[in-house]
Specification:
Layout lengths: L2 H4 L23 E6 L13 H17 L4 E7 L15 H4 L10 H11 L3 E6 L3 E3 L12 H4 L4 E4 L2 E4 L4 H17 L4 E4 L16 H7 L5 H23 L4 E4 L22 H5 L3 H6 L5 E2 L14 H12 L5 E6 L15 H9 L5 E6 L2 H6 L4 H9 L1
Parallel strand pairs: 1-2, 1-11, 2-3, 3-7, 7-8, 8-9, 9-10, 10-11
Antiparallel strand pairs: 4-6, 5-6
Helix pairs in contact: 2-4, 6-8, 12-14
Length: 386
Amino acid sequence: MSLALALGTPVPGLVLGPVPGPPSRTPPQVRGMWIATVKHIDWPRSRNAKAQRAEFVRLLDTAKRMRLNAVYVQIRPTADAFYRSPYEPWSQWITGKQGRDPGYDVLGFMLREAHARGLEFHAWFNPYRVSRQPKLKALAPSSPARRNPAWVRRYAKQLWYDPGLPQVRDLVTKVVMDVVRKYDIDGVHFDDYFYPYPAGGKSFPDKATYKTYGKGLPRATWRRHNVDTLIQGLSRRIHETKPQVRFGVSPFGVWRNKKTDPAGSNTDALQSYDALYADTRTWVRRGWIDYITPQLYWPIGDRRAAYRTLVAWWSRQVAGTRVQLTIGQAAYRAGTTKRWKNPDELSRHLALNERYPQVQGDIFFSATNITANRRGWATRLRAAHY
């Protein structure tokens, strides 16, 4: 991928239409894209404030050319902030050094530019990831993780907050609610990271926390309860404070496999219920979230987790609930491996979605891949569906 493509050169063949006013409600069909900031996946590529703003505007303009209507922007990637926070330091992914002030209100700028183009802005938080490296001393002195090392666990050469600690859940809640109160965001968004993905055959090191707070529950049940507690509590706080702000989660695409649980999908893949302790089906059934965007990053005919199978399964889960179902689409895979060479694969996904009235849109991971438009997949998808 060329640097020009990575920084937001317009998608070939896409024509920018008129710019509507700020959105007043979530549209019936969501057409979104994720903008990831961790490791500079999508933004920012420069440490210069002026260049950063120009980069971000180009990404938004690409979204408009693609006729999208929402962006999901990662504003708390590693327990640090893309805004001035009373709880956490400025993000290292803005200036290269955690805690360094970039000299402007990054989130305020992003929000204004998105709304000026009629794009919904969903603030994307990672609740428990602290750092992609394992050393506490590498964090800013003001980081709560550095000030409270007992809250932190080293796992898979990274640092994580322990979800079993009430202090951690309290911090995450304060961080999210600070943004909800201060900024006119349209949504609060979590992705698939709760307890970390299993690594190296080792269990997450929370033995001491479990001993203190487990209350006789099986360890796996207790871990799910910890995540449930955060989701339910945040949902209540968000809706009490700003009822118009929507709360959504984009989990790993498989809840449980049918061979494990009769209620699961006819798949053979990692199970978020068992591996990440994210009981997403319960969150839908109890109405704790406003929308769910399972990451269905498999092709239609995949042997272990077919896209067709999972769209049908998730449609059944939201049927009869108030929870909106949108699908996470693997734009990053388009035009790459053998199974994804067909530039129409994602267009086929959207055509299949039309058979299920419960599916109310799609979100693409991620902005850079839409911009790259490998093998013309984005141009073709827009022509066929948008």
